[in-house]
Amino acid sequence: MHSVSRFRMYPTAAQQPALLEQCRHARYVWNLALEQWAMWTRDKGATPGYTEQCRQLTEARISFSWLRSGSQTVQQQALRDFDRAVKNFYTGTRKRPKWRKAALHEGFRIVGRQARRIVNLSRKWAAVNVPKVGWVRVRLSRAVPNARSYRVTLDRAGRWHIAFAAIPPPLPAPGTGQIIGLDRGVTVSAALSNGELLTCPKLTSREEDRLTSLQRRLSRCRRDSKRRRRVKTAIAKLYARARDRRMDWVEKTSTDLARRFDVIRVEDLRIAQMTKRPKPKPDGEKPGSYLPNRRRAKAGLSRRILANGWGALVRRLADKAPARVEKVNPAYTSQTCSVCGHCAPENRKSQAVFRCVACRHQAHADVNAAVNIAAGRAVSARRETPIRVPPKREPQLSTST
């Protein structure tokens, strides 16, 4: 599986318009290929493939000077990426290709010999040769992998990045035979069966207050105004800061777990289904009206789930420790006692307190669930185990002499 090593790029003021032009060309070619594919019907025959689209691209570059001014390598790679996306969609490994929008999907990919044109300038700086742009400086935070392709992207906070795709060697297992269970939560991001509680860093309270203030200011800005663009950029910088902290925590935590334990067991959660928007509930008595569906509460819970990096943590664990990550059925692992096995909703007193009503075992609720996950315990059907009542003993009569 490929891993992505991302570095920060620092183009000059003259290089930034050239990079944006390459992004526009790649987005235009992708959307044009998507339009051809989306207009397919049974009576029109087969849609153009990659070879035919490359021929059409050559004709378009001859006719339009603005398209000819860009890199043919970037434009052909956009067609190749779209062809791969369509094949992945038909095989069921990826979702349907979507339209790429300006200011949201800014980037392009370089594959082949041009992707290896990298020169180290110093211990902390390097330069990469981007077609039609020139040598762009890159900040080195670690060694550049020996990759055959890279992708240049611009995020919504205005930062340029270059990501190299390479196949890293897996981390070796320690060989101690230890098995760890990992329970993911909202208050505690990850609870381990050995009692460790890990929390994903988020925005501080001061940053949260600033984010709220900026969002209120955004609602009062006029559309397509300069002030609105400035406020949106400031909000994007706060979200980018939170994402950087989350991904840094995910990388460090996954590396630490892969190096310390031989087997890592996690819950088999369908995060995409858990964070999906609730469906509207039509009111049968009032046509055209809808009943409350707790959309706001569900949106808040979904934001907290995504902010804790549930999916990213398991993905990076699978990348760094292949064949050592096992998924366990999550059914009622938080309601089952890890000591006696009694399962009942009354066992979970609160978010953090677990007190078994049968054996009186008390522990942190997330740690108790992590112990069940480490043992592979799960309840496949909703049930309540009977409370184990110790047998009554007959009172012994004492004889006095």
What does this structure look like?
By secondary structure, this protein is α+β, with helices and mostly antiparallel strands. The protein has two domains: 3-166, no CATH class; 179-280 and 294-328, no CATH class. It is 38% helix and 18% strand. The protein has ten helices and 16 strands. A hairpin with a 3-residue loop joins strand 4 and strand 5. It is globular.
Any descriptors?
disordered C terminus; alpha+beta; 5-stranded mixed beta sheet; 2 domains; 7-stranded antiparallel beta sheet; 401 residues
Query: What's the total count of β strands?
Result: 16
Relative strand content: 15-25%
> How would you characterize the largest beta sheet?
7 strands, antiparallel
Sequence of strands across the biggest β-sheet: 2-6-7-1-5-4-3
**Alpha-carbon distance between the two ends:** 83 Å
Rg, rounded, reads 28 Å
Series of H and E elements:
EHHHHEEEEEEEEEHHEHEEHHEEEH
The mean pLDDT is 89
The tally of helices reads 10
Oligomer: single chain
Structural class determined from secondary elements:
alpha+beta
Shape: globular
Runs in which pLDDT lies below 50 for 5 or more consecutive residues are 379-392, 397-401
The number of domains is 2
Percent helix range: 25-40%
